[in-house]
Amino acid sequence: MTIQQLFKTAPVTTLLLVSFIGLFIVQMLTGVDANNPSTEALLNWGANALPYTMQDQPWRLVSSAFLHIGLMHLLFNGFAMYFFGQVAEPMFGSAKFLALFLLSAIGGNLLNSYVTWQSLLEGTGQPGLSAGASGGIMGIGAALLIAALFKISVNGMVLNLKSLIFIMGINLVYGFAVPGIDNAGHIGGAITGLVIALAFAIAYRHRLAVALQNAAIYQNQNLHSYQTTYINQPPSIDSYSAPHATDLDNSDLNSSDLNSSDLNSSNFNSQDFNNNNLDSRDLDSTNFNSNDIDGYRSDMTGSYNDDTYAQRSAGMDSRLDIDTAHANSTTPKTPIKPSFIWQLLPWLAILLISIGFVWWWQDIHYQILQVLKAIE
Predict the structure, then answer these.
(1) What per-residue string of b and e applies to 327-352 under the rule 16 or more CB within 10 Å gives b?
(2) What fold characterizes domain 3-216?
(3) pTM attached to this predicted model
(4) CA distance 10 to 143
(5) Strand partners, 129
(6) Can you give the pLDDT at residue 175?
(7) Cα separation of 122 and 90, whole Å?
(8) To 10 degrees, what angle do helices 94-122 and 71-92 make?
């Protein structure tokens, strides 16, 4: 997929990748080592560090998500963002996707700070720093897991749950196996992504149920419209043109028209029609005369008017009665509109998580201030 195609499909993902790469290039241009940047350089460029982040620089919770420690770190996170973003952004929408990434990154950094602070209180740890988009990417991956579990489709395709679990498992195992990996940041980001995606999936299921109900209502309305047209415009019986007295009478077909002089053995003989066909004995004045034609006319007219018409009328009346009863029993309903609360549910979850993160930061911040006052 080219940059133009990626930007058209997932513009936020493209901008995030550009920001990762652009920031790294600017760092190298200012003299930062591309493979082993110093602690001072990372702090200057916005890394997450407990003494700074939890006192008067909370913006590091966000800035550290765009900063990477070395080229390999950038390539790994860049590939993961490219892989997850082009699927997750069209699914959740650009705005929700951006909120998902930022809140997952913040959640990962907050959990890292909390774990670091607790280890300091217990005397088992020491202050450190963290950086990278891993927390936000893990949140996106966890959100895709929820989407696969709820069978949410992307352009008609459903995500493979086993593949996503495998990828997420590799990241977590790699984090615990290799020293220096921010496991708390990964876990915190994944939990944040799970909560946001769960709200999105519940809202999606509700909207899908409403859409299916509206589809059923639409079909019933079309059926009702067809039945109404059929009842109001029954098929015409008059289209059958039965012979009547003005078509077959003595003036048109009489003995003078069909007589032995016109149809005799000289015109139709045994050479033209053998014994199995018609001969002069079958077509003569004794077989076709006015009495026979008039009798045929009266028989046909009488049988159609009295029997056929009555039977068809009775059958049509019964059919119309059935269709009318069915049409009356099938009352079309108005389409159902999704409840506004379900449309806002993902944003409500995002708002509540944001408020919770603010409270969490203030709680750690207050604990640090209390300890510093006690030391003084």
Answers:
(1) beeeeeeeeeeeeeebeebbbebbee
(2) Rhomboid-like fold (1.20.1540)
(3) 0.69
(4) 16
(5) 49
(6) 66
(7) 45
(8) 130
Q: Which two tokens stand for residue 57?
A: 């620089």
Q: Is 226 helix (H, G, I), strand (E, B) or coil?
A: helix
What integer pLDDT is reported at residue 125 of this predicted model? 77
Query: Cβ-count burial of 309 within 10 angstroms (0-12 exposed, 13-18 middle, 19+ buried)?
Result: middle
Positive or negative torsion for Cα 289, 293, 296, 298: negative
pLDDT of residue 4: 84
CA distance 32 to 41: 7
> How confident is the model at residue 191, as a pLDDT?
96
Give dist(CA 154, CA 151) in Å, integer: 10
Report CA torsion sign: 90, 92, 93, 95.
Answer: negative
Walk along the chain (376 residues) in steps of 10 and give the mean pLDDT of each run. 85 96 95 92 95 94 95 92 92 95 97 94 85 94 92 73 75 66 90 95 85 75 59 48 43 41 41 41 42 43 46 48 47 64 90 97 94 85
Q: Please state, as a whole number, how many other Cβ atoms lie within 10 Å of the Cβ of residue 3.
A: 10
Structure tokens at 51: 């003494």
Q: Where do we find the tokens 């499909």? A: 9
